[in-house]
TrEMBL record:
Gene Ontology MF annotations: glycosyltransferase activity
Alphabetical list of InterPro entries matching this protein: Glyco_trans_1 (IPR001296), P-loop_NTPase (IPR027417)
Domain of life: Bacteria
Keyword Repressor carried by entry: no
Protein name (record): Glycosyl transferase family 1 domain-containing protein
Keywords from the UniProt entry: Transferase
Amino acid sequence: MKIGLLHAGQPNDGIRRYSEILSWGFKRYQHATIGDEVLAGPDPASVCIVAQKLSQVDIAHVQLRCLRGSITLAPEIGPGDHVTFQFFERTRAPIVATIHDVSTASCNENACQQIAKLASMCCQLLVFTRQDREKLLPYVPSEKLYIMPHFVEPRRIVAEKDEAKRMLGLPDTPVITVLGKIYFRKGYHVFLEAFSRLPQNCFAVLAGRPADIGSSQSYAEQLVSFIEKQGLVQRIRITGYLPDELLDYYLAATDLAVCPFLQSAASGSISSWISHRKPVLASDLPSLREYDLIAPGAIQFCPPNNSQALADAIQKQLEASNSQTQNDALKQVHQVLQLKEISRRHHQVYRRAQVVSHLNNARRTTREEADVAPKRFALISHPRCGTHMLRTMLMQHPGVDIHDEIFNDESPKTEAYRQMTTSQVLHGLGGSPRGAMPGFLLHLVHGVGPWSDVWQKLADDPEFRFIALKRRNHLARFVSMAKASQLRHWQVYRDEEVPKTSPVYVDPLEFEQDCYAYDERWNLFESLVPQQQRLTVWYEELDEEPEVPWRSITNHLQLDDLPCPEPKTIKVGDELRSEIANYEQLENYFKNSPLEACFANDP
C-alpha cells in the first residue's frame, strides 16, 4: 500500500510538523511506502498539482484545522477559502483526514457544517479525543469518526537535569516551564499570575514565541509588561522559537511542566513532556482528562483560569517531586502512545479505508437479482469469530469444498493465486475434483492488494450465497485477537494444548474504535449484498444451541444430510475477567454505554 501525506503550512507550523513526524513513523516502524507532498501555496495551480500527485496513491492522508470558525488545510490558505474543498474534489485517491482543534471555540457551527461536507468526500475522519468525536457526531456519521490519540514524539534525552541547567545558564533551583506558541487560550497570563505568588527560589521558562496571528503579538507584549511590573524579570526567561536540539535541553532542565490552557484540543506540548517523563500539571479540561483513561495519575490537574489554584497546585507538585506513582503512570502513557503504536493504528485505519472505498464503489452498482440456485458461496466474517471452525464443519459434506483465505493479502497461502485476477480465482476454482460446490472464506478486512475488486465481483454474481458469521460479544473477540497475536497462533481447537499467556491490557479507546470499525464493515456489506443472498449466523448461538442456526445454514446452501455439531464445539478460552489485566477499569469506563453488554454475560 502506498500512502500519500500532504504537509501544509509553514515549516515550523505545529500541525505540519505533526504530519511530518507521522510520515517518519510510517517509514521507520511500518516500513510503508510513503509519498510526501508539500502544498506550497493557496494558488489553484499548486492545489491541482498536489491533488494530481496524491491521486496516484492508495490512500491520501491530510491534516485539517479549525481556524476562526472555518476549516482549512493551512493558515496561509485562509479560513473559508474554496481551496480546501477544491483539493478534496480533485483528489481521486480515498482520503483520510485528521481534524485538529475540534474542542476549541474555533470549531463553531459553521466549521462543523464544513466538516460535514468534507466528511462526505472522505473515507475516514480522525479526531484526537472522545470529546472531539461527541462534538462532531451530530454532523458526521459515527462510522466515519475514529479516535486517534496524539502520539508521544520520540525525543532524545540529551542530558541529565542538572547538566542541562548548567549548559543553559539556568539557576540550580526548581525550573517550571510552559511550552508552546504564545497566545491567549494557552493561558500564559494565568501562569504568570500564579508564578508571581510562588517563592523567590522558583524560576520560570516560557518556551515559545507569539503565534502567527495579530492579536498574539500584542498578547505577548502584555505578558512582558506584567513581568516587568511584578519585578519578575530576573526569575523568568522567554526563549522565543527553539530548534529541536535546544528544545531537548530545556525539556531536560525542567522540574515541572505546566499546561495552563483555557481551551485544549490534542496537545503536542504535553506529548513532548511525556516523551521526557516530566511531571505535568495541566488545566482540568475534558480533552486532557483522557490521559486518565490510560494511566490514572500520569497528569496532575487543577481548575482552569484560576491563578491562585494553579499557584497552590504548583507548590504542592514541587513538594511531591519524583513521585514513583506518577513516574510509573507516565511510563505507561508513553508506552501506549509511542509513535510506533500510533503509526500502527494509522496503518489499520488506512487498510480499513481502502476496503471501505472498494465497498462503496461496489455499493453503487445496481442490478436486478435473479432467483437462482447457489453455485458458489462465501463465509464472511471477522478474525476470531469461529470462521475456520465453521469451515471445518461444512467441509464434512461431500458436496462442499471451501478455499481458505485466498483473498487475504497477508497470508502465505495466497502466493499461488497472486498472478490471477479476482474473476479467475472465483470461477477458476469452481472445478473441484469431487464436483463439489466451491466456497470461499473471506474476512471483511480482506479485499486489498491484487484483489481489490473482490467485493464488486461478489456483489455482481447472483449465483453466490453468503453466510455472515458474527460475534455478539465485541470484547471477547477483541481479547481473543490480542492473545492470538501474542502467541502468533491463529487457529485453536478444543483439545489442543495452547501456551498460557499473561492477562492482556485493553486500551479502552482502541477497543471502542475496533467496535466502530466492526459495525461499519458489516453495515457496508449488508447494504451491498441483497438480503435474499445472505444469511446471518451468530457465533454464540452456533456454539451454545447449534440446532436452529445449523438448519438455517444447510437450508441456505441447499445441503442435505450434514450432521449438526454438538453444543460447545466452537468456543475456546477462559472467562474475560481472568484474561484482561484492567477488567474493572474497562467495566467502569463502558458503564451505561452500548458496550456495557460485553460485561453482562462474561463468556
